[in-house]
Structure formats: structure tokens, C-alpha cells
What does this fold into?
Amino acid sequence: FYSKGKKMHLSRRYKDVDSVKQYYRSICIEQDVDSPHLYLSEDFFVNEGDVVVDVGVAEGNFSLDIIDYVKKIYIIEADPLWVEALRYTFKPYLDRVVIIEKYATSYNEGNFATIDSLISEKVNFIKMDIEGYEWDALQGAYETIRESDDIRIAACCYHSDFDQVLIEDFFDKNSIKHTTTKGYMWFPYTNRQSIVSTKLNRGIVRGIKHIRS
It folds into this structure.
């Protein structure tokens, strides 16, 4: 199907039209202007010519939305069914997309890897949505963040009750100014995933490190 005029493929888990519509509706709601899960805003955005790291990509809506004006996107996704779909979705953009089938974390072993070990250039934007492992992945991105002169980071912080505190502490220790998105994420017990808290939590911590003097 098409998302904002671009062809998007979903995982083979979605086997009928209704399940595809329901899934697509959910990601549109997440990126609504009033959503606490909104990655970008009028004052927090991806610039033309940026190098972007998209961690926890799923169907790739974030990367697909910005693909026309960025320099390069590193797509890091470990689910093989999503990776299969991503290869179809981003086939027209292989000149600027690198798909990496790994779990982003703080160490290198098997299918687990640090961002520092995967990327050897300065980056401008990192988006993380990896089910509560954002803080761990940030540890593995320390050198990339330190060596990048001008970088923005959108890290989801609602999966556990301590994610926001840990992510903000990492930002503070690395001189990254930060805010959170407005509103709260809440998942009633009946709809709860094992990886999502049932308490009210902020959706995303947004961090900005400005160009060094």
C-alpha cells in the first residue's frame, strides 16, 4: 500500500486488508501532532542533508517520511520479517539507505551490536524506539554521539517506569539539552504488552547537542 504517496510494505504477519488498515491507523495516531509519541515537531526536526540513524524501525514510517531530503539513513532492525519488508520498501532508495539486521545495544556479540561498531561517520539525528532498551543502546552509541558535532536524539521512554530518568541522566552527563514530548503514554492492563508499563509515562525524550565552539 501507499503511505503519503510512497509504497510501504508490511511484515508477513499482516495477512489481510483489515489487519493492515488497523496497523497503519495505529502508526498514524502515534505521529499525530498531539501525540506524546510524536518523534518530530516544528522545533525538533531532521534537516536536509542529515545523516540519520533509525533504531527500531518496524515498518519504517519515520525513515520513509524523511527519505527524500536526507543524505543517508542507517536502518537498524532485528526482526527478520520486518527486515524483509524494509528491503522492499527502501529498494528505490538504496543509494542513501543502509539496512542493518542487528539489535542495537551496549555490547557486541552475535546479533547484538553497538551503534559505535556499526557506524563510522558523524551523524545528525538518532531515533530510538526499541521496547525499553533505549538507554542500553545509548551506552553503545557514546562515541558516535561524542564525535558528532550537531546531533538530535529522539528516544522513547514509556516502556518502563525508569526509562525517562535513565535517558535524561545519560543526556545530562553528555551535555545534551533535553525535553519530553507533551502528554503521557498509558496502556491499560487489558491491552498491556509484556514490554510496556501500565503507569503514566512520558512518550519521548528529545535531546539536542549543539555545535562545539
Remarks:
- The first helix runs from residue 17 to 30.
- The radius of gyration is 16 Å.
- Residues 151 and 210 are 7 Å apart (CA to CA).
- The mean pLDDT is 94.
